[in-house]
Amino acid sequence: MSAPNKSYDPVAVTALSEGEVQRMLDGALAAIAAAGDLDELKAARLAHAGDRAPITLANAEIGALPPAARADAGRRVGAARATIRTALAARQDELE
């Protein structure tokens, strides 16, 4: 029986990679910009900032990361979520 491999990270969370977070952010910003009325903006909000949105689910995965990786992933996801919230608020002001 061998000892556990301490260098292996079983929690390689793809949703938290820099490229994937950027892809989610780009998709959210495009949907927000494309919203032509408040109903479309509400749909974009649910799809990209709601409880089941990919960025929200990615945020929930941060706790599963090893401690050394949490800070970097947390900053990356937190910044993307803040950008999405700001874009939603700005677009709502424009549409109202």
Task: Supply the key terms.
single chain; 96 residues; mainly alpha; 4 helices; 69% helix; elongated
How does this structure look, described?
It is a single chain. The chain is mostly helical and 96 residues long. It is 69% helix and 0% strand. It has four helices and no strands. It has helices at residues 18-34, 38-49, 54-61, 67-95. Helix 3 (54-61) packs antiparallel against helix 4 (67-95). The longest helix has 29 residues, at 67-95. It starts with 17 loop residues before the first helix and ends with a helix. Mean pLDDT is 87; it is low at 1-11.
> What's the gyration radius in Å?
17 Å
Would you tell me the overall average pLDDT?
Answer: 87
Helix content: 55-70%
Number of strands: 0
List low-pLDDT spans: 1-11
How many strands, what sense, and barrel or not for the largest sheet? none
Order of helices and strands: HHHH
Intertermini distance: 66 Å
Class based on secondary structure composition and strand pairing? mainly alpha
Q: What's the overall geometry?
A: elongated
Q: How much of the sequence is in beta strands?
A: under 5%
How many individual helices? 4
Summarize the structure.
With 96 residues, the protein is mainly α. The chain is 69% helix and 0% strand.
